[in-house]
Amino acid sequence: MESGKQLTGTLALAVFTAALGSLQYGYSLGVINAPQKVIERHYGRSLGVWSDKAAVLSENSTKEDELLEAGAHPDVVMYWSLSVAIFSIGGMFSSFLVGFVGDLRGRIKGMLMVNVLAVAAGLLMGLCKMWKPHIMVISGRAVMGLYCGLTSGLVPMYIGEIAPKAYRGALGTLHQLAIVIGILISQVIGLDFLLGNDDMWPLLLGLSGAPAVLQSLLLPLCPESPRYLYIKLGKEQEARKSLRRLKGEYVPTSDLEEMRREKEEAEKEAKVSILSLIRSTVYRQQLFVALMMHLSQQFSGINAIFYYSTAIFSRAGVSQPVYATIGVGVVNTIFTLVSVALVDKAGRRTLTLVGLGGMCCCAVAMTVGLRLQNEYAWMSYVSMTAIFLFVCFFEIGPGPIPWFIVAELFSQGPRPAAIALAGCCNWTSNFIVGMTFQYIEVFLGSYVFILFAGLLLVFTMFTYLRVPETKGKTFEEISAVFQKGRKKPLNSKDDTELEQLKTVTEA
């Protein structure tokens, strides 16, 4: 029976179970937006800087500048900003631990261990009214950030290692699909007539820990990564058993042979620490490509759209902007499904190029629309259409591909360190965009998306010139593409460097 072609029930269960972690990540990203005003009022009450009585007085008064909004108070602004930003800070720190957690007891036990963080975070936020809501929510968001930093590395690592070569792209894209479904779920149940209201918002935030409970029940039924078993632990029989569970009854000789060769390579190169990966010239090109792809995902301006889409839609004259934002979430999900269908046919490089180039054009159109909508009423439709198309192009390539291409660019030795570095780069740039966009918007006004258009043009050129196609290639073949670009005389130097890396990690 041909290996690598079959999709089995066990493989589907394993991928679905792992992707629950990504769903939780998406939910946590999106959940904080809808109930902002409600939460700010609770913060204001808890801090003693705002009361319902003050709100009633200011509504009845003619002055606009009185305490109508709790969110206008500097203390509330500070605690609210911290509630949003601490999530990214937690992710930045914990993404460095992905390799360590993944290798400690294996990918399955690693995901099980980190679920403790998700459940704890859910409880902190769900029970926040029992004490000071601002402290409880910020603590819960910090712990959830730690969880999401780990899961955003562990999930693509596990799926990338268990996926048959023919479906590696499509299954890798499911991480991003689960994220956007998580965002969409949080937007829908965050509507004020569901959970985004005065009574139910702690439950809305607390539910971000719910997928972890389901995942914890399903993980023991999933097979461990055969690559981890064979290459890291040297357990060939267990790896063979795991392959059979994942792919059904077939002769796993060719898969084991590929792993054996990768194990030999891994023994030659040794397990590479984060510091030695940064210093190493051997992996410099792969690392540069991996980090640039993650930077292109975050600095494309997509998070500016997600964080502030409601404000952008109301400026464009939409009477119910929250529904337009949910519309963006739906489009987001549909086009991630398109990417799942296309990624193993069209290839990673092509989809990334189409996505980045399309987003660049949309950013220009958005700027023109926002700039001229006061002169021409129909220009608001131009900027809204541009927002929807911007999201479509993002989900075709730049959204899903960076998450799993890192696992494809690196062999077993440096892979955990590379995923940790790429994850940290992603979270850091996410944090920078989230913190600075409001200030940049004030400074640049309707020209804000021209800045992103410029960045997107740079990323499109980089992808065209430097990113190789990884579709259908083994890890060995991908590595050879980078080595081909290197000058021959360096080989002996590379060999001595690999030897040094090996002795450093053995020491």
Automatic annotation (TrEMBL):
User: Molecular function terms in GO for this entry?
Assistant: D-glucose transmembrane transporter activity
Topology relative to the membrane = Multi-pass membrane protein
Keywords (alphabetical) are: Membrane, Transmembrane, Transmembrane helix, Transport
Every Major facilitator superfamily (MFS) profile domain range: 14-471
An annotated GO BP:
D-glucose import
The record ties this protein, via InterPro entries, to: GLUT (IPR045263), MFS_dom (IPR020846), MFS_sugar_transport-like (IPR005828), MFS_trans_sf (IPR036259), Sugar/inositol_transpt (IPR003663), Sugar_transporter_CS (IPR005829)
Family matches, as PROSITE patterns: MFS, SUGAR_TRANSPORT_1, SUGAR_TRANSPORT_2
Pfam families with a match to the protein in the record:
Sugar_tr
* Subcellular location, principal: membrane
Q: Where in the cell is it found?
A: Membrane
From the record, give the transmembrane residue ranges: 77-100, 112-132, 138-159, 171-195, 201-222, 287-310, 322-343, 350-370, 376-396, 417-440, 446-465
Q: Does the keyword Transmembrane helix apply?
A: yes
Keyword match Transcription: no
Which terms in the GO cellular component ontology are assigned?
brush border; plasma membrane
The record's NCBIfam families line, in alphabetical order, gives: SP
Family statement drawn from the similarity comment of this UniProt entry: Belongs to the major facilitator superfamily. Sugar transporter (TC 2.A.1.1) family.
Protein name, entry field: Solute carrier family 2 member 2
Organism of origin:
Myripristis murdjan
